Amino acid sequence: EVQLQASGGGLVQAGGSLRLSCAASGLTSMGFTFDDYAIGWFRQAPGKEREGVSCISSRDGSTYYADSVEGRFTIDSDNAKNTVYLQMNSLKPEDTAVYYCAAAYYYCSSDPSLFSSWGQGTQVTVSS
Question: Buried (b) or exposed (e) across 3-26, using 16+ Cβ within 10 A?
Fold first, then answer.
């Protein structure tokens, strides 16, 4: 079973930056490697549905960004460390949410139901 550990959240003023990390382990227990997964970041604010923020596929290097974060957030991965990063710049109060990383097989999607493994979440709070 894949285990995901998200970290890097915190409190930041509007316009500031944070870098989230998602470290994956247990990948080879089912015969897969990090290259077989897509890692996505989702967020959920109080009273709102979970939404896809960004995703990167280690299979083909493709990425996905929600329109609301395009140009402000950047996702990348360090396959040697089985870790995916989400660099968040120009943060806005509406970015406040719990951010989760999740793993899906092979390719990215904005649909949370396609992700089979989830991390515990890290809180991001952006003050105005």
Answer: ebebebbeebeeeeebebbbbbee
C-beta of residue 95 within 8 angstroms of C-beta of residue 89: no
Q: What is the pLDDT of residue 72?
A: 98
- Using 70 as the pLDDT threshold, list the residues of the chain that sit under it: 28-31
Place of tokens 């998200």: 6
Is residue 43 packed enough to be buried (19+ CB in 10 Å), middle (13-18) or exposed (0-12)? buried
pLDDT of residue 26: 82
The secondary structure of residue 114, as a DSSP letter, is G
